[in-house]
Inverse folding.
């Protein structure tokens, strides 16, 4: 059976680590790239058998995951986030897939994400296929600071069993991540030369709600489907609002905020 290295990045993920690493016991090695955790994440990962590398800086999601990838030694690499879970069925499917002589160089996995305790199957959240399994040396992560992707040199196959994503445990979690992701998203847009106005922020957020709740049938997820669509719209609003405010003249911003 080909060897597998599981890689993940962490920062204050002690509430997720035990469950995440429990689903990776079949891997030949688990590499945790920690970025300045203060909650004992690195220590717990070591106790659970992971190989831990600590970095105090934060270059962004893509570069940080490439750091972890550079430490992998297995023939195959499985990239996973701390809030994701590999089920026994998915682990079995992975091992069977990479054991085939005609296996492609990478596989995408369907990801089933939860929102405030409910797994969401509509609104564009499912199947949300992500490339997470690939031959070492055949793929790298993009350099994006947020919403990074795996860049594969060869063909990509598809697995059937879900990767579980315990993404937003509570409304507080939603609000915290909304602020963090909107800031990173604004920075990413600015690095690409994008500009925004107040009208842009309003239009983009309205479209995000319509796309999530109506076009992608988020209403089929019930009341939380509506709440999720509102959250998507808000994150979009703040992303473009932050981009707009960052592009205004400094004096104008000061006058506006005072």
């Amino acid at each position: 059976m080909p060897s597998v290295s599981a890689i993940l990045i962490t920062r204050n993920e002690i509430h997720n680590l035990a469950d995440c690493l429990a689903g990776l016991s079949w891997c030949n090695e688990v590499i945790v790239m920690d970025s300045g955790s203060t909650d004992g994440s690195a220590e717990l990962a070591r106790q659970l058998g992971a190989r831990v590398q600590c970095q105090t800086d934060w270059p962004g999601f893509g570069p940080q995951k490439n750091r972890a990838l550079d430490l992998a030694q297995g023939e195959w690499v499985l990239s996973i986030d701390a809030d994701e879970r590999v089920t026994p069925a998915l682990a079995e499917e992975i091992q069977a897939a990479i054991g085939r002589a005609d296996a492609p160089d990478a596989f995408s996995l369907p990801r089933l994400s939860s929102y405030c305790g409910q797994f969401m199957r509509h609104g564009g959240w499912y199947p949300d296929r992500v490339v997470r399994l690939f031959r070492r040396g055949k793929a790298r992560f993009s350099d994006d600071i947020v919403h990074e992707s795996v860049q594969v040199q060869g063909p990509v196959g598809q697995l059937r069993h879900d990767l579980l994503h315990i993404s937003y445990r509570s409304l507080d979690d939603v609000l915290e991540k909304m602020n963090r992701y909107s800031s990173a998203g604004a920075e990413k847009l600015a690095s690409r030369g994008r500009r925004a106005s107040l009208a842009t922020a309003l239009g983009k957020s309205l479209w995000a709600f319509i796309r999530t709740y109506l076009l992608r049938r988020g209403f089929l997820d019930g009341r939380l489907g509506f709440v999720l669509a509102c959250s998507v719209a808000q994150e979009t609003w703040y992303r473009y609002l932050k981009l707009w405010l960052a592009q205004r003249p400094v004096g104008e911003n000061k006058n506006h905020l005072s």
Remarks:
- Residues 4-167 form a domain with the Spore Coat Polysaccharide Biosynthesis Protein SpsA; Chain A fold (CATH 3.90.550.10).
- Helices lie at 14-22, 41-47, 61-71, 88-98, 171-191, 198-215, 223-247, 250-257.
